[in-house]
Amino acid sequence: MLLFSVLSGIIVACLVPFLFKFGRKPASIIISMVPLSLFLYYLFNFGITDNLGYSESIEFFPALGVNLNFVMDSYALIFALIITGIGTAVFFYSSYYLAEHPYLDRFYIYISIFMASMLGIVTSDNMVIMFIFWELTSISSFLLIGFKHREEKSRYSAWQALLVTGSGALALLAGILLLYVITGKMNFSEINAMPGIIQSSTLFLPAMFLVLGGAFTKSAQMPFHFWLPNAMEAPTPVSAYLHSATMVKAGIYLMARINPAFQGAIEWETTLTIFGGITMLFAAYMALKQTDLKRILAYTTLSVLGTLTLLIGIGTPLAMQAMLVYLIAHALYKGTLFLVAGAIDHGTGTRNIDEIGGLRKFMPITAVAATLAAFSMAGVLPLFGFIGKELLYEAALQPNLFGYTTFAIVFLAALFGVVAAGMSAIFPFFGQAKYPNSKPHEASFTMYSGYVITAFLGLLFGLLPMIVSDNVAKAVSDIYYNLPVAVSSSMYLALWHGFNLVLFLSLATLALGIVILMFRKKLFAIIRKINLPEYLLPSKGYDMSISILIASARLTTKVLQNGYLRNYITLILITLLILTSYSLFTFSDLSVISLYHPVTIYEIIIAAIITISTILVVKSSGRLQAVAALGVVGIFVAVVFSIYGAPDLAMTQYSIETLTVILFVLVIYKLPKFMHYSKFSHRMQDFFLASAVGLTMTILILMVTANEMPTEFKEYYGKTSYLLGKGRNIVNVILVDYRALDTLGEIVVLSLAALGVFALLKLKKDDRGFE
Amino acid sequence: MWNDLLMGSPVYLSAALAIIIILVDAFSGKNKSLTFYFALISLIAVGILSAYTMNMHGQPVPEGGFSNGMIAYGGISAVFDILFVIAGILTLFASQSYMRAQNVERKEFYSLILFAVCGMSTIAHANNMLILFVGIEIMSITFYIMAGFFRERFTSVEAALKYFLLGAFATGFLIYGMALIYGATGGLLDFEAIGAKMLTGNVDFLYLRIGFALLIVGLSFKVAAFPFHQWAPDVYQGAPTMATGFMSTAGKAAALAALILVTKAMLPSNFDPALISDKIIEMTDFTTDAKWLIAIISALTMLVGNISAVVQKNVKRMLAYSSVAHAGYLLMGIVSNSINGWSGIVFYSMAYMFMQIGAFVVVGIIEKNDGRMDLKDYTGLSKTNPMLAAIMGIFMFSLAGIPPFGGFPGKYMLFIAAIESGFTWLTIVAVISTIISIYFYIGLIVYMYFKDSETPMTEKFGFSKATLTLVISTIFVILLGIFPTYLIDLVKGLF
Q1: DSSP codes joined into one string, A243-291
Q2: What are the φ and ψ backbone dihedral angles of B151, each rounded to 5 degrees?
Q3: Domain identity same for A444 and A466
Q4: Quick check: is A694 in a domain?
Q5: What is the DSSP letter of B369?
Q6: Cα–Cα distance between A119 and A5 in angstroms, integer?
Q7: Residues 6+ apart with CB under 8 A from B485
Q8: Between chains, do A579 and B419 touch, taking CB under 8 Å as contact?
């Protein structure tokens, strides 16, 4: 049932084309019921009945330890509920928001697959299965970002997002395989039980960094963050769902999920803290520079992702608790704000914050939802975001690797967060009414019902934190190796902690934020002017690596693939030379070659003739001379054969030489003129190559002949050729008796060649007409 | 005798039918479908016999029987047979529609497919270096003809000529290598006997090394591995599209089958305990060097193949380069020299066959008869022909090794096998080159889905036999991705 619930999105995706036969509206409503029913299923079957740790397993690829192991624990449940809950809002919202879009059916296919894969990521215990779902989210995200593909920018962003997260995913796969090499296990539950073995392995650091490569690209940590703001080209519901509430959290999910295996290693904590901290602060600052509503939200999302990474890096149970609360709060308010941004876009036709204001008169319901979400984002009492921020401050104040620097960063980022909340959700609705075009209109019920519910849930969780408290505490023990029992039982969430340092800091953040907002005009004017030098931007790095790739591709193609046969042969010969001479000169004793053989005068003559003719072949200026000289070489090689007792071979050689000449004569008048000579440099190159190959091969043959060859065959034929074959010439007996079939074959081949010659002779010019 | 005949029947039957089909072809006059159906039925018959003999694996090869022990039976050879037969059938279907669209239907093509299958199946069943050689030559010569099949087209003729000249060159190395190995092992040609001899360490290591290197050079040429890959893009682009699909899948698989045979025999992992220690050292030195040689070839092949594919504007040529890269991935299985690696090769070749032939069918459909093969010709395909675009998209994702399609489990197995055999760096290289490959595979999808053409393709493509190939390929690419375990378990049990 769990498996079915995970995969139901994919099943629905297959049914979408049929459902759309019944009309767009009913189909979208029916499809939107899927996340809703899944949400209810997870809520009632796991959340309320506390049926956690439930698992299902199906064999998939058992030979290599890959099986469909699905586990629903408290940690997974939090994600599952966010995925299906926000999913419900987004599905309904899109049915109105994209109602006019010609490819609404495709949208639902992609997004259903996405939902299923996201559920797959958070419920699969097997790392490879998780990776498979991970890749599926990349694909569906790619298709969804490119959904509004009219613009070049949108294509560029989709491609960029896929290349960055796809590459990261492959790094993750490599990390998973290394973990498998270390432990021999493929399941999180097994890996997480053996931190000692993993951390003492020499492969620990490579494995850790590869896994982080996957997590950081997916969760858009610096310096891999640039794809996320660009991904805002996607339709707003997609941004709300993928690029804020769920997919970008997959990296966070993975880091916390695998935390027990890496926990305690100083490299793990340092890396996460540094990357998280930098992302958090940098993104919060960048948010203030933006004017596009969605880009502001994107950068604040980045900042939150940094915060979550940082909290995992701090690594105390409290930090983990803070991470989970912050994550839930963020999903609720950011999901709301993105959908609100879409509603504003839909209602006014713009997303530029400088062009809009005072929309509460036209969009009262949306204004309420936006305000609640903004308050949660800013950490205003009594919203859930407030509890999150309290915990965050508490965790950052705990002793950690970087002391108070950590807290300073957290505080600054939170302050910028307050400002961004004001910019993105308060000012568009309050103050002087302004809008670019026609009169803005309120969103429809199907659109706003989703985000109103998420906004109010933020309030509800704030007022009654005990709803989530228990599950969060259990989830902490899921992602913390050997959590002390005392700690886990003392974890409860409360809105009010009394007057203490943290409360004071929270209030200070708010107050400072409000002050900044009051002077925002001047401040923004300054901030928007300060630009980072371009070469410092990581997206430049992306563009550069793409151009390097393309340049190197051009180069390889030019060097290796120029279309000239002679260059191909040159490379093959060079390789041959390297391979042979390596073995020859490393592993052999060249002294076995004896240089003193008795030489007869006719051997010298033959050698001289062959050499001279070869030189003539190369130097000759006409085609006929070259062929004639080549013929001389062949004939004299045949002479060598006949001298050394291989008359049959010699005969074959003679006939082949003759045949070649006949064939050549037949075609000589049809050949183009012989006038292109290669350049001197090419000739020299060929000369050296030919000499080197010739020399190596000669040495090889001398080595071979210097060796004693197995004599059993010689003896066998010597003994039996007279007795069985009734012949005194062993070679003849072998040819006509032992290899009679072979000889027959040779005769057939020769006859076929003769037939070919005959056909060529008969060929008349007009017969060559093509079909 | 009869049992012997039965067990080797896929080879004998395909050879016999290949000879008969020439006669059918010669005497059937203008009737083209007779040759077509004869080829189809022959392939099916060979396939059924292969499936039937598959479990006869492990039975002792009868001495002095029909094949005199030179032919291996059943088991993995039969799996390869089935692969070749499927590739043949898919190509048969696709080529009929393709040639009709090009207005050059010549029935010889159907008999060539049968000939090629005969050669490839001979390779897979070889238990002897000479049989291997004969198989490779039957296959190669058929491929030369296939490459030049559109003999009135310059590109096709050029492809055939290049292929032939370089192929003949490579064959020289192959036979030279075999001769040296024959000498090094004291006059052995049978793979089983060579394997047994290697265990004793009683061989001449110098000739073994050079012979092995030359053999690898010759076979690398057939798989199109760096630096012997240069013919591949030119030939694959120039050859008729369906021939390219066939050559680059079944042909590659056959060459890998040959590599498996050779390396399995020549690179033993455990030695005779009675071996004296300096022989063991020489032996391990040789196997390590041999594996490194193949590993370097493999790494460079995937990098060069994928990097070169990045800038290709012609889809057919891009797929040709990607085919080179896939040879690199497949060689990882040879490097690992383990059952995991070999079964990875079989699985990957099978999945690769479906996706590559499928992709080439799409290329062939778009190409029609005006040679449209550029990336820009695919612009906006998702609007005019959504099914075709979706199918091509699946093939591209699968070629990129993105789950849950058939390309992933095979690649995963090969990665694992390489890591297990201590070649972690090779896996890293493979991961990097896979990342590079995402760029161009997805590039095609961007063209099909995200771009709007100024001159949208108007025609829709109707049903033909090629559609059958497409449907079968798509189904199997998905099935192999979702249920890989059936094939994997089957293959693993056969080694």
Answers
A1: IIISTTHHHHHHHHHTHHHHTT-HHHHHHHHHHHHHHHHHHHHHHHH--
A2: -70, -15
A3: yes
A4: no
A5: T
A6: 9
A7: A59, A60, A61, A62, A63
A8: no
A531 at interface of B, judged by CB pairs closer than 8 A: no
Query: Which residues 6+ apart lie within 8 Å of A642 measured at CB?
Result: A650
pLDDT band per the 50, 70, 90 thresholds, residue B349? very high
Between A213 and B373, residue with greater pLDDT: A213
List Cβ neighbours of A747 (8 Å cut-off, separation of 6 or more): none
A window 17-76, beta carbon within 8 A of B: 59-64, 66
Question: The domain containing residue A768 runs over which residues?
Answer: 710-771
Whether residues A324 and A418 fall in one domain: yes
Same domain membership, residue A257 and residue A278: no
A573 touches chain B (CB under 8 A): no
Residues from chain B contacting residue A170 (CB–CB below 8 Å) = 431, 434-435
pLDDT of residue A536: 59
Structure tokens at A494: 């409360």
pLDDT over 60 at B270, yes or no:
yes
Return all residues near B280 (Cβ < 8 A) that are at least 6 apart: B201, B271
SS3 of A457-508: HHHHHHHCCHHHHHHHHHHHHHCCCCCCHHHHHCCCCCCCCCCCHHHHHHHH
A770, closest residue in chain B (CA to CA): B152
Supply angle C-alpha B223, B228, B230, rounded to 5. 100
- Please indicate, yes or no, whether residues A526 and A605 belong to a single structural domain of this protein: no
Is the same domain home to A347 and A494? yes
* Residue of chain A whose alpha carbon sits nearest to that of B103: A771
At residue A537, the pLDDT reads: 67
Q: Give the mean pLDDT per block of 10 residues along chain A (771 residues).
A: 81 81 81 85 76 74 75 85 87 82 82 89 87 86 76 78 85 88 84 83 86 88 82 82 84 88 84 87 82 84 88 83 87 86 81 78 82 84 82 79 78 82 80 73 78 83 78 78 68 70 78 79 74 65 79 80 80 86 76 73 88 85 80 88 79 81 74 69 86 88 73 74 77 77 80 77 54 36
Q: Would the CB atoms of A64 and B205 count as touching at under 8 Å?
A: no
Same domain for A438 and A416? yes
Residue A277 domain flag = yes
Yes or no: say if A443 and A93 are a contact pair by the CB < 8 Å rule.
no
A710: which DSSP letter? P
Q: Are residues A252 and A280 in the same domain?
A: no
Q: Distance between CA atoms of A340 and A555, rounded to whole angstroms?
A: 50
Distance, C-alpha B141 to centroid of its chain: 16
Residues B368-379, mean pLDDT to the nearest whole number = 77
- Name the closest residue on chain A to residue B492, using Cα atoms: A63
- Give the residue from A471, A500, A531 where a domain finishes: A531
Mean pLDDT value across chain A: 80
Q: How confident is the model at residue B62 (pLDDT cuts 50, 70, 90)?
A: low
The answer to whether residue A398 is domain-embedded is yes
Can you tell me whether residue A673 is helix, strand or coil?
A: coil
Q: Give the confidence band of B482 by pLDDT, cuts at 50, 70, 90.
A: confident
ipTM confidence: 0.83
Q: Give backbone dihedrals phi and psi of A300, rounded to 5 degrees, phi first.
A: -70, -35
**φ, ψ of residue B314 in degrees (nearest 5):** -95, 125
Domain boundary among A261, A293, A320: A261
A577 within some domain: no
Residue A208 shares a structural domain with residue A270: no
Q: How far, in Å, CA of B294 to CA of B98, rounded?
A: 37
- Number of structural domains, chain A? 4
Flag the least confident range among A458-472, B26-40, B122-136. A458-472
**SS3 for A600?**
coil
State the pLDDT at residue A771.
36
Q: What is the pTM of this model?
A: 0.82
